[in-house]
Every structure is written in C-alpha cells, then in structure tokens.
Amino acid sequence: MYAAVASVLLVPGPASAQDVTEAALKAAFVYNFAKFTEWPSDAVSASSPLMMCVHGDPAVADALARAVKGRMIAGHGITVSQAAPAVRGTCHVVYVSGRSADQATQIVAGLRDLPILTISDIDGFAEKGGIAQFFFERGQLRFFVHLESVTRSRLQISSRLLALATPR
Asked: Is the pTM of this model over 0.90?
C-alpha cells in the first residue's frame, strides 16, 4: 500500500521523471494532500468548487492549475488562485512559499482553527501552526504533518497520507 500511495504522490502526470520541475512536484503534492483530506460539511458547500490559493510562488500556482485542470475532489471542481493574504472564508487549501518566516506566520495565524489545509516549504511553518511542511532530504521532496494543527482545523487527513509523512 505504501508504494501505491507514494506513486500517487510522486507522479504528477504523464511526464517522465526527468521532465518534472520542482514547481510541478510541489503542485502534485499540494493536489494529493487535498485529495487525501476531508473537510467538515460546513466548510465546503455542495455546489462550490474547492479553492486552492497559492501565496508567493507563481510557478507552483501555474503548475497546480495545470495539474488540477478537469479534475475533481470529493465531487467538487477545483479552482486555483494566486491569492492575496486575506483568504479567510474563500480558500480551502493555502500554499505559502517565497515569503519570509514572519509573513508566513502572519498568514497562518489568521487561518488558525479554520478548516483550511495550510501547506508550505518555509522552515518552521508547521511549528508556527501550519498543517504540512515540505522539505528536501537527500534530493527528495519530503513532508511532515503537524497533527495538533490538523485537529484544530477539524480536517480529516487520510491515514494513508499520514503514514508517508516524515516523523518530527
């Protein structure tokens, strides 16, 4: 089962491994994090799309828009936005990159306790209240999940995804 989930997370599409950019890889991870997450029934209305907002990394926003085009998650279409920091109430997934640690902390503090999947590659993001943080280890993109933030957000993250997380 580990190999099956890992292959879903690590393969963003039909491109070969040497064609995958860092932005495309991160976009695939963001999409798959959302795919393995359940939102409370009051967080996403049945008729609205799942909104993925990207702060500070236009390359990931573009790659994510390409990765999710025509796809659905839990019966919802997916929309990608290069969002301004005021995302409260509009975004279901927030990816933050290319910002200072202080800026990322301010963004995540404004989303604390809301059912929003917050993801970043900024050092210390999860410790400051973010849900998932990417990092490179021996040339591979890895991630860890801050379980206390998951609980506060009322999101349900699949145990299959959590099993792939690097322990902290």
From this structure: no
